[in-house]
Design goal:
The chain is mainly α. It contains 7 helices and no strands. The N and C termini lie far apart (51 Å).
């Protein structure tokens, strides 16, 4: 997937805002709210922006871990990862599906399509 400069800038801005929310959380409840809001915000991003923000996740998760140590809590940053990985790039998905198909499926489909076309042509000429 090609990332534009705009995608990268948007992802960086979202990551900075999420980072600020995490760092400024003063208790476990605020940290949970920050994670939930960040997960929701990341969900609104385009596939390219989600891909771009993935490079910021290690830093964000480190900040969550630091807050967990400070608050002696166990808030999971996994929601951030799940939101960023929810990329529905149709070209990528089609490629993944095609990789799982046996190699002769395309050939069988073309043969079946040719046979069906031949039947239609023969039926029209009668």
């Amino acid at each position: 997937m090609n990332l534009s400069q705009g995608d990268k800038q948007t992802a960086e801005q979202v990551a900075n805002r999420v980072s600020l929310d995490i760092v400024s959380a003063s208790n476990v409840a605020e940290l949970n709210r920050a994670i939930n809001k960040a997960s929701q915000d990341i969900g609104y991003l385009s596939d390219a922006e989600k891909t771009a923000i993935q490079s910021n996740l290690p830093e964000l998760l480190s900040q969550v871990d630091a807050k967990n140590e400070k608050f002696d809590s166990n808030v999971k940053g996994r929601k951030l990862i799940n939101s960023a990985q929810d990329v529905s790039n149709l070209d990528w998905l089609a490629g993944k599906i095609a990789d799982q198909l046996p190699p002769n499926v395309d050939m069988e489909y073309r043969q079946l399509r040719t046979i069906k076309r031949g039947r239609r042509v023969n039926a029209k000429s009668m």
